[in-house]
Amino acid sequence: MAEVLRVPVLLFDGDCAMCTGWVAWAERHPGAVRSSGEWEAVACQFVDLRALDACAGGRGLVTAERVQHGPLWLTPSGKVYGGPEAAARVLMRSGGAWPYAGGLLALPPVRLLARILCLPAARRWHPTRTGGAP
After folding, report:
1. Closest CA to 111 of 94, 134, 130, 79
2. What distance in Å separates the CA atoms of residue 125 and residue 46, rounded to the nearest whole number?
3. Burial of residue 92 (number of CB atoms within 10 Å: 0-12, 13-18, 19+)
4. At residue 6, what are phi and psi to the nearest 5 degrees?
5. Residues 6+ positions from 15 with CB-CB distance below 8 Å
6. pTM to 2 decimals?
7. 2 against 131, higher pLDDT
8. Smallest Cα–Cα separation from 77: which of 21, 7, 1?
9. Strand 72-74, strand 9-12: pairing
10. Is the dihedral of CA 5, 30, 70, 36 positive or negative?
11. Gyration radius (Cα) of the chain, Å
């Protein structure tokens, strides 16, 4: 049986300047001090992706290819959220007004708009120029 995650994990591509910068902001931002519980950010190059996928139910949702298209938020219950929805989950666990922004970003029309608006930036900043929706 696969090991269960103790806390949610934000899995990101450590090669992408946009993802790396955003994760650094989330980790150091005063309002994002894990106000509603801890979480861990890990670059996909430094973790066993098969083990994380097993923690998420072994459905093939946690892959290096998918992480290249946006961050993944893995919950201890096995749910996997990708791209803007992963960012929304981090914001919802932050302090101040950030949970409201995260809730808004989690809405399907806003999430779609975020994917469309982030695509050019992700293509520009990702070293392999593959940015896009997971």
Report:
1. 134
2. 21
3. middle
4. -80, -40
5. 45, 126, 127, 128
6. 0.79
7. 2
8. 7
9. antiparallel
10. positive
11. 14
**Pseudo-torsion of CA 101, 112, 87, 29, nearest 10°?**
-50
- Written as one letter, the residue type at 14 is G
Residue 127 to residue 123: CA distance in whole angstroms: 8
Cα separation, 62 vs 103, in Å, equals: 23
| Residues in contact with 74: Cβ distance below 8 Å, sequence separation at least 6, in sequence order | 5, 8, 9, 11, 52, 55, 56, 62, 80
Core vs surface per residue 96-129: b (16+ CB within 10 A) or e = eebbebbeebbeeeebeebbeebeeebeebbeee
Query: d(Cα 80, Cα 87) in Å, to the nearest integer?
Result: 12
pLDDT, residue 13, reads 86
Cβ contacts of 29 within 8 Å, gap of 6 or more: 94
Is pLDDT of 33 > 70? no
